[in-house]
Known about the structure:
Blueprint: H1 3-9, H2 35-47, H3 53-66, H4 71-78, H5 82-94, H6 96-103, H7 109-119, H8 133-144, H9 147-150, H10 160-169, H11 178-184
Amino acid sequence: MSPVVDAFLFPRPSPRIIARSTSKPCVLPHPSSSALRQQEVLEHLVRSPTSEQRLVQRARIVLAASQGGLSRDLALALGVDADTVGLWRRRWAAAQERLAAAEQGPRKSDLSRCIAATLVDAPRPGVPGTFTPEQILEIIAIACEQPEQTSDRPVTHWTPREVADEAMKRNVVSQISTRTVGRFLKPGRS
């Protein structure tokens, strides 16, 4: 790469960012003939004005790591933490089989999609949703019914309280708050 391209792909870090000195050496292999297409896609991602900046930063890390060096040195050069460099080196190395398969795919866009999927955030841990999509749809269906025809309630229009009570009565859910029903019925919910 030329010095101009290097300066664009790997901008100087701000002086306030300091890499940890505990990084371990981890070297990705130098680009082979099969990895050259991956490198081209990564460079295109870095140069594209519409790319998300988090993906651009990760692509820069992978490109720099393919040239070799210690994580702490790359982190200092890229203005990120050494652990971040190590994380993306490991994720990129773990994805090599998928990337190679995508590279052999019938469409050129397969590799680009696979690279973008590799560079996005991993799913976050957390508590799964309380209600299944089927339960939510049943609650919405209750709200779409005519209350005087389908229930023994003396109302002409459903309120969130009435829908919540009816959903529990029909054993759609064991328990649900009025506020949750209101969120389910809110316009624009997708």
